[in-house]
What we know:
The complex is a heterodimer of chains A (88) and B (228). Chain A has 88 residues and is mainly alpha-helical. Chain A is built from one helix and no strands. Chain A has one helix at 12-43. The longest helix of chain A has 32 residues, at 12-43. In chain B, strands 2-3-1-4 form a four-stranded antiparallel beta sheet. The chains are: A mainly alpha (88), B alpha+beta (228). At the A-B interface, α1 of A face α2 and α7 of B.
Amino acid sequence: MSQYNEKIPIPARLRWREIRVRIFPFLIFVLVAGVVMWLWRDRVEATTMIGHVVGKQAEVRSPQAGSLADMTVSAFDSVRPATSSPAW
Amino acid sequence: MSDWIYLGDVAPLPTDFMALVMALLLAFLCGQVLAWVYMYTHSGLSYSRTYVASLILIPITVALVMMVLDNNLVTAFSLMAVFAIVRFRNIVRDTLDTVYILSLIVIGMAAGTQKFSTAVIGTAVAAFVLMYVWYTSFGSRQRYDLILNLHWADSLGEISALNRLLDRHALKVQMASQRSVQDEEGADLSYRLLMRDPSRVHDLLNELQANTSISRVTTMKAEEESEV
């Protein structure tokens, strides 16, 4: 009769299924929660101040129609107004 | 992350990729918490495993929608038109199927609004969660795999012998019903068992039949019934 008190062994296939179905979701949950906590500390910042930025504006116009050639300046170069008026 | 993923979104407004990943993972966590609550509190006959799986996927899809919309009113209006495709002359019966379609619509929107990296990251997270749901059979509440009916002829005070025998064979034993007749000893009992080894049901039956207090033994296999 004592043999009837021993528990039936659980096959490895079923034991792995129990781990996959019952334990795996908790493991993934904890892992993802850790990643989210890390990202939260790194990335989440509440807005404490609202600023307003206005860039410098300049109006460039020509009194005559035509195409500009032989440009000697590149983008974002500083330029100053010429000292003498060009002979149009 | 390499440059191609950083430079992949060429839409006018830049994307914060870490915020995108965090939003999708947080949506996954919150969805999973509510799915667990649903699993453990749901009662009734309408339980569906794919519905529980969709409870995880829907927050991820919605988070992706909001990231793709990006405060853009034009995209928001076009989204409503695109969502009409889901029901266009087509009734999708399974909730998870609907979630697949919604996810693909949003990924398509991300690609169409030139948020290429968002489309890639959204697809990766959605694919990971769908594989996770499949691999873990998420939503399955398989509480028993065998229904056992029998007649116990002795007094119910002696039933511990039967309980020991059932504990030997089953991980979980749940008595589903007990029917007693007045002025008669014993009872008709019905158990739900989660077997330790489902291939050894015949051993359980042999041991039950060897007990003189037990008669009229019937069993029925019940593998994940009603949990589609």
